[in-house]
Amino acid sequence: MEIVGNRQFVEIPGDRMHELPPLFISTSPETDRLARAMEMANKVAADEEMIPAMPVADANVELLLERRRAGLAIQIVEQYLGLIEHWRLGESILDWIRQCETTFEMKPALRPFLRPDVWPHAARASFVTLLRDKSVNTHGMEPERAVGMRLSFRQPPPLDCFSHQFLLLLKTAVASSAYDRWASLNTPASSLPPERFSFEVHDV
After folding, report:
1. At a CB cut-off of 8 Å and minimum separation 6, what does 180 contact?
2. What percent of the chain has a predicted confidence (pLDDT) above 70?
3. By the 8 A CB rule, do 100 and 20 touch?
4. d(C-alpha 185, C-alpha 108), whole Å
5. Using CA atoms, how far apart are residues 45 and 53, in angstroms rounded to an integer?
6. Cβ(133)–Cβ(191) under 8 Å?
7. 20 DSSP assignment
8. Tell me: the pLDDT tens digits for 123-181?
9. I want to staple 183 with a disulfide (CB 3.0 to 4.6 A). Which of 15, 66, 89, 125 is the partner?
10. Distance of alpha carbon 160 from alpha carbon 136, whole angstroms
11. H helices of the chain, where?
């Protein structure tokens, strides 16, 4: 076992570079979801009375309120689409981890490092750390938060399932807590040495 700073790395015998399955990251926008999201956002803003409806005699004040409602709806949509992007990245990463686990099982030199009864070993979260160590371009999204979002939702829910408090204030905390809990299930766990692994990343 090698220790660098406060991190422990599994020591893989030999100097061979091990090829892992490619990671496919979905980057295409879902235009059909955008139209539905905008409609739902207006409903969320109205149902939760984010801007209370009140009789207004002044047309200028009414126009101002309408602009504020539209601005809030746009903000809700932006937050929701960001949630969906994180969810999709988390789905891609978890699928990649499953493929990596299969690869480890098929290679005798790697098989022991995923066994929790052997120490040091690597946990599933070690693959997320490997993405960080390899400086994988995740298009500005944190892989930990993305995985946490996917762990929180089996499928991406429609926008009207969420309160505006969740979208604007709570979703990051929920995703982070989910990831931290998931990552702590297999501790102590060591990191995978990034110089011993290679894999391709494709945007699809």
Report:
1. 148
2. 77
3. yes
4. 25
5. 11
6. yes
7. P
8. 899 999 999 999 999 999 999 999 999 999 999 888 878 887 888 889 999 999 999 99
9. 125
10. 33
11. 31-47, 59-106, 125-133, 143-152, 164-165, 171-183
**Tokens in use for 158?**
């429609």
Q: How many other C-beta atoms lie within 10 A of the C-beta of residue 81?
A: 16
Tokens of 37: 């999201």
| pLDDT one-digit tens code per residue, 157-168 | 888 788 878 888
- Tokens read off for 138: 């995740």
**10/89: higher pLDDT:** 89
| Pair of tokens at residue 151 | 């762990």
Residues in Cβ contact with 84 at an 8 Å cutoff, skipping those fewer than 6 apart:
30, 33, 156
Residue ranges per structural domain of the chain: 2-203
Would you place residue 194 in the very low, low, confident or very high pLDDT band (cuts 50, 70, 90)?
very high
Is the Cα torsion angle 185, 198, 97, 170 positive or negative in sign? Answer: positive
Q: Are strands 18-19 and 7-9 parallel, antiparallel or unpaired?
A: unpaired
* Nearest Cα to Cα of residue 125 among 16, 64, 116: 116
Residue type present at position 188: P
